Amino acid sequence: MNFEYLKPIDETLFAFANAQPNQSFGKSIEIYSSLEHFPDLENKKIALIGVEEGRAAVNNHETGSCLDEVRKELYKLYLGNWPISVADLGNIQQGNTIEDTYFALKEIVTYLVKNNIIPVIIGGGQDLTYANYRAYDVLEQTVNMVAVDNKFDLGTIEEELSSQSYLSKIVMNEPNNLFNFSNIGYQTYFNSQDEIDLLDSLFFEAYRLGEVSNSIQTVEPILRDADIVSIDLSALKNIEAPANRNATPNGFTGAEICAISRYAGISDKVTSFGIYEYNPVLDIKNQTAQLISQMIWYFIEGVNFRANDYPFGLKNNYQKYIVPIEDQTLNFYKSNKSGRWWMEISLNENNKFKRHALIPCMYQDYLSASNQEIPDRWIKTLKKLV
C-alpha cells in the first residue's frame, strides 16, 4: 500500500504529544509526524485518520480544517485499563478535486479493513461516508451501515454527492453492497414523510431521537450488527457541540453520544468508525474538539472490551431458546460469555446473505416472541433475505 496520500502531523503537534504525561495517548500511541517514520502497522488494531475535505459539506464548508485541535484534546487523555494498539496516520489532504479525496480515503480504508485494522475517521463532511462505503467493494460482501444523524441525508438521485445526499448514492449506485441501513436519532420535522416512507419500504430502520434518549441501551443491538458507523455532529445538541453550522437545539447529549460510541466499539462487526462535520471556526473553548476526543476514547475502550462472540463459535458457548409462534418457530441464542442475545433466520447454506441470518437483539425481543409478538427487526430482515 502506498501511503503517499497521508500528510504527517507537524513538528509542533508532535512535540505537544511528547510533552504529555506518561500513560497519556500522546505518549502511548505511534504518531506519523515529520520527525518520525510511518508507523509500523503490524499488530495495530486502530488507525486514526483526519480528512481535510469540506467542499461537499452543505452549509459547513470549514469542516475538515484544524483537525489538530481534536488531536490535542485526544493526546491529553489517559488510557483506560486496557492494552492499546493505536496509530495516528496523520491527514488526507484535500485533493485537486473532491473525487481525488474520495479515492484516497477509499484506498486507505480498503487496506486497513483488509488487514483487520479499524480506521477511525475524523472529518470532513459526512459525504466522506460514501468513500468509506465504497472501500468495502473489494471485500465482495454486503455490509450494514449505521448513521447517527438528525436527518436521513437522502437528497435526490439527481443531486451531486454531498453531505445531505450521500445516502441516495449508496442506495442507488453500483455495485450495491448495502444490506441494511439504520438511522439513530432522526428528528421527524427534519425529514419528509416521503423519506420516512421510503426507508420503511426498503426495510431499513430508523429510530427517533426521543425513542433512543429514553432508553439508550436499545441502540446496542443495532450497532452490534453494523460494519460501518457514521456520526454527524448535527445529531448532538448545539449547546453540547457548537462546532457545526447545522447544529440545532435538540439532539443527543455528550454523555449519550459517548455511550453510542462505546456500543459501536464493543460491536464485534464494526470495522470502520467516522465522526464528521467538525467546524473549528465555531468551536467555543475547544468544547466540540474535547467531546470528539472523548467519543474516540469511548470507541477505543469498547474495542478493547469486545467479547468476540459474533459470529458464533462453538455451540456450547450459547444457550438456545426455541419459541413456537404462529406457524413457525423462532430460535434465540444467548451468549454465555457476554449475555448478549441473537435471533436466527434459517437460510439455505448457499444463500449469499448467510452472514445476516443472525440478528442481534435484546432480551426484550425474546420476551415479546414468547408473548406471540414477532420482533420488527426479524420481520424486516426476513423480507430482505427472501
CATH hierarchy class name of the largest domain: Alpha Beta
As a percent range, the share of helical residues equals: 25-40%
CATH superfamily of the largest domain: Ureohydrolase domain
- The proportion of residues in beta strands is 15-25%
Rg, alpha carbons: 20 Å
Order of helices and strands: EHHEEHEHEHEHEHEHHEHEHEEEEHH
Using the alpha-carbon principal axes, give the shape: globular
What gap, in angstroms, lies between the N and C termini? 39 Å
Largest sheet: 10 strands, mixed
Number of helices: 13
CATH topology of the largest domain: Arginase, Chain A
Structural class estimated from helices and strands = alpha/beta
How would you classify the quaternary structure?
Answer: single chain
Mean pLDDT, nearest integer?
94
- The low-confidence runs, each spanning 5 or more residues with pLDDT under 50, are none
The CATH architecture of the largest domain is 3-Layer(aba) Sandwich
Number of discrete domains: 2
Folded structure, characterized:
The chain is 31% helix and 19% strand. It starts with 5 loop residues before the first strand and ends with a helix. Strands 1, 2, 3, 4, 5, 6, 7, 8, 9 and 10 form a ten-stranded mixed beta sheet that branches. The protein has two domains: 6-304, Ureohydrolase domain (Arginase, Chain A, 3-Layer(aba) Sandwich); 315-385, no CATH class. The protein has helices spanning 11-18, 25-28, 68-76, 98-114, 128-134, 166-172, 193-201, 209-214, 220-224, 254-266, 287-304, 363-370, 376-385; strands spanning 6-7, 30-31, 46-51, 86-92, 118-122, 143-148, 178-186, 205-208, 228-232, 272-276, 318-325, 328-335, 341-344, 358-361.
